[in-house]
User: Fold these one by one.
Assistant:
Number 1:
Amino acid sequence: MSRRKLLVPESRKAMDDLKAKVSGVQQPDEAKYEAAREQGIPLQKGYNGKLTSEQAGKVGGRIGGNMVKELVRMAQENMNKK
């Protein structure tokens, strides 16, 4: 689970649901492991101190980037309805 605090804590479930949706997994906590597997990065539960910063960034960047793309798509769709 992320140590970062959301500005609106009540949004945690919605953010987790979005993460699962863009990652194609059922459990949001599994999203980072799925993204790592797809890129051949040996991310495991627990200690991952042997990963390089580049490897860790690829995992987080892929998830975050896909979440932003989906949020933009949703906003555009919402604007088109008005």
Note: The first helix runs from residue 12 to 23.
Number 2:
Amino acid sequence: MSAPVPINVGNTAFMLICASLVMLMTPGLAFFYGGLVGRKNVLTIMIQSFMSLGWTTVLWFAFGYSMCFGPTWHGIVGNPMTFAFLHGVSLQTMFTGNDAGIPLLVHIAYQMMFAIITPALITGAFANRVTFKAYFLFLTGWLIFVYFPFVHMIWSPDGILAQWGVLDFAGGLVVHASAGFAALASVLYIGRRAVVENKPHNVPLIALGTGLLWFGWYGFNAGSELRVDAVTAAAFLNTDVAASFAAVAWLLIEWTNGRQPKFVGLLTGAVAGLATITPAAGYVSPVTAVIIGIAAGAVCYYAVALKNRLGWDDALDVWGVHGVGGCLGIVLLGVFASKAWNPNGADGLLLGGTAFFVKQVAAVVICSVWAFVFTYGMLRLIDFVTPTKVDREAEEAGLDIALHGEEAYPLGI
């Protein structure tokens, strides 16, 4: 019988810091979305993020972690009872996914932060028009039937896509593509807003949110190595490089088309770059991160333009930024991946990895279709229980007052 792996203090401390950084991204997202919506709907969009912070933790503790990382059921989902209510987890229980020497409690906490922010991303798509009761049911169902199974399929060693050879370093499929195409399904099912407000009410709030997201993303990407090594450093640098080049690319394209450099465009481009580099951060070189960042800024900009042309009321561009960005990142990983930058990764299309590229593209299709179909069907079922969409009077009054009886900016303040 082998001796237990001792706790590595450095790796454990690093992962706890990364978990804290990822947790900070959810309040950052609340600020980002809060600044983008109108004054009468700020609290409504922000409470949805903070509700995920609370309720997702409850589900994660009860059975979510077990569904993600418990013993597999046909490679699709883990046994929900194995770690239910953290059964069998003690101070001495170690994470066995690698030899990093971190307690299992650290892995549980770190992955929980991913679970919290992912459904919160979707809320930007149906901003200003969904009842809170419907959102609560949506949050619960989406985690159970979309997010938890995809975490298992891709990030659990026994997952069917992991066994097939699909790579996703920090969540291009698990987080961004799934949330983006769930957002598109939400937009198409719930329909357009009766009162359309596309002008941000508070750009400094958007900037604050972007800063918190960007800062937290270092924990999101670099922490996904689950230890401190050279790959961790590459993922950290790639994150910043891609975000920066994407921000500048978006700004220049928008400036060329609209004759003015827009601050919100710069901020949105940065988020697009962060979403796009996420699946590739630990598998590619910094030079490749530059290419991915530029591609993210351009492709996501035109994806949002296409959305506007088609008349989809994706209020805060979740599909164009996160859905398209996540899918683009997975495909570009299939092109540019290099074992020279991560021996545990793969070689992409440019290095002869044709089969790997095909698998990445197939995984994009599987994830996008799964997230779209389940989300659309789930919203239809929720509508039988409670209305998903608020009435016109509530939209006109503002959801802060109509649903929550609170105001972000009371009269006279």
Note: The first strand starts at residue 72 and ends at 73.
Number 3:
Amino acid sequence: MPDSTFIELSQMQMQRAKELLTEIPVLIQIGAYNTAANRAYYAAFHAMKALEALDNYDSKKHSGVVSYFRQHYIKTGVFDADLSDLIEVLQTTREESDYNIIVRINAEEAEMLLRSAVRFVDAIAAYLPERCRSDQTFLN
């Protein structure tokens, strides 16, 4: 079982991921689709950081977080390869919509990104208690 400090950091990261997911429908409702895309990516990002915390690993770059996730959790079969595809779409869309002023996300795309982020975060959230099985309070 991971050290309690790492479990606590992991819980904090997952809590942030879930908070971000709750913001996205509000952003979609008010037409802030690019911001919704940003929040969708960051929800997935914090979920990946929750895994890193349990491993006592901390990448300083977004590319490092994604690479670590793929190497240690996709290639090893912990998660299905389609999660790698989801993070690729979320990350690319976030970068394009944040840094390219002419990129405008529409309502349908924002809804798709929300579904993708929920699926991604839910998959990791379901795995975390298994990883910390002996800690009954994890993410309750």
Note: The chain has a mean pLDDT of 92.
